[in-house]
Amino acid sequence: MSILTVSNLKKSFDGESVLEDVSFTLEKGDCLAILGNSGSGKSTLLRCINLLERPDSGTILFEGENILSHSANENRLRSRINMVFQSFNLFANMSVLDNCMLAQRKVLRRSKEEARRISLENLAKVGLKEKCDALPSTLSGGQKQRVAIARSLCMNPEIILFDEPTSALDPMMVAEVCNVMSSLREEGVTMILVTHQIEFARNISSKTLFLHQGKVDLCAPTEEAFLHPSPRFAEFLKVERSL
Ligand SMILES: Nc1ncnc2c1ncn2[C@@H]1O[C@H](COP(=O)(O)OP(=O)(O)OP(=O)(O)O)[C@@H](O)[C@H]1O
Ligand SMILES: [Mg+2]
Question: Measured on CA atoms in the order 48, 52, 54, 59, is the torsion positive or negative?
Fold first, then answer.
C-alpha cells in the first residue's frame, strides 16, 4: 500500500481554480519533488496534504485512511505529515530547545525529560546541539532552518513536507540545509519537496511531479522525467536554468 494516495484533488479560491484533478502516489522512502512556475499551485497542494487548506473535492489517503474525513485530528495528523516552511516559523520568544519541545509535549504528550532528550538528539543531527539555549533571532537563516528541520524530526513524522526550504536563505546557507536534507534522504525519510533549485531536486528526488496551472503535467521517476521531459517541463527547465 502506498503511504500517500492523492486522487482528483480540486481547489479554487474565489472561483479561480488553483488545483485541478491532481493525482499522485507516494511510496514509503520516496522523495517527491514538486516543480512548477510561480502560482502553479505547489504550496496549495502541500497545504492541502497537511490540512492547512481544505480541498473542494478529491481524496487524500494516508496509510489507507482518508484524512479529509471529519474525524481526522488535525494536530495529530500534522505531527505525522509535518511541514517545514520557507520562513522557518520558529517561535521568536522561545529558545531553540523549547521550540523543539513544544509540540512533542502538547501533541505527543511526551514527558519533559523525553522531549528534551529527543530534541537534543535531533539538534545534534543537524549540527546545532550547542545552540539549544539560543533564541532564534541570534541564529543565521541556515541555522534557523536546521532548527525547524530538527523540530520536525522530533515528531517522528512519516512524511516531511518542505515548501521551498532554502529560498529565504543566502547562497552560503543553502548548502548546509541541502546537506541536512540529503542525509535525511539517505536515512530513508519519506519527503515531498517544493523547490526552485532544479539540480538539487534532480539529485535528491526519486519522483518528479511538474505542475502546470494547477494540473499535473508530468509525474514520473526523476531520471525519466529529466531525460524525457514533456514539452512544458522542458520549457520550464530551460527558463529556470537560464536564470
Ligand atoms: N489563501 C488564498 N486566497 C486566495 N488565493 C490564493 C490563496 N492561496 C493561494 N492563492 C492563489 O492560488 C494560486 C496558487 O498559489 P500557490 O501559492 O499554491 O502557488 P505556488 O506554486 O506555490 O507559487 P510560488 O512558486 O510563487 O510559491 C495563486 O494564484 C495564488 O494567488
Ligand atoms: Mg509556493
Answer: positive
Q: Could you tell me the distance, in angstroms and rounded to a whole number, from the CA of residue 164 to the centre of ligand 1?
A: 14
* Number of the ligand closest to the Cα of 40: 1
What domains are defined for the chain? 4-242 (3.40.50.300)
Task: Please report, for residues 58, 89, 94, 122, the alpha-carbon distance to residue 115 in angstroms, rounded to integers and kept in the order given.
Answer: 36, 19, 15, 11
| Residue nearest atom 31 of ligand 1, based on CA coordinates | 39
- For ligand 1, atom 8, the nearest C-alpha belongs to 44
CB atoms within 10 A of CB 97: 20
Burial of 162 (0-12, 13-18, 19+ CB in 10 A): buried
70 confidence band (pLDDT: 50, 70, 90): confident
**Using one digit for the tens of pLDDT, what is the confidence trace for 9-65?**
999 999 999 999 999 999 999 999 999 999 999 999 999 999 999 999 999 999 999
Over the stretch 17-29, which tens digit does the pLDDT of each residue have?
999 999 999 999 9
Q: How far is CA 77 from CA 18, 111, 203, in A?
A: 24, 20, 29
Q: Calculate how far, in angstroms, residue 48's C-alpha sits from the geometric centre of ligand 1.
A: 12
Ligand 1 pocket, CB under 6 A: 13, 18, 36, 38-44
- Crossing angle of helices 141-154 and 171-186, in 10° steps, is 20
Provide the whole-model pTM: 0.95
The size of the chain, in residues, is 243
| Among 185, 228, 209, CA closest to 32 | 209
Task: Report how far ligand 2's centroid is from the alpha carbon of 83 (Å).
Answer: 13
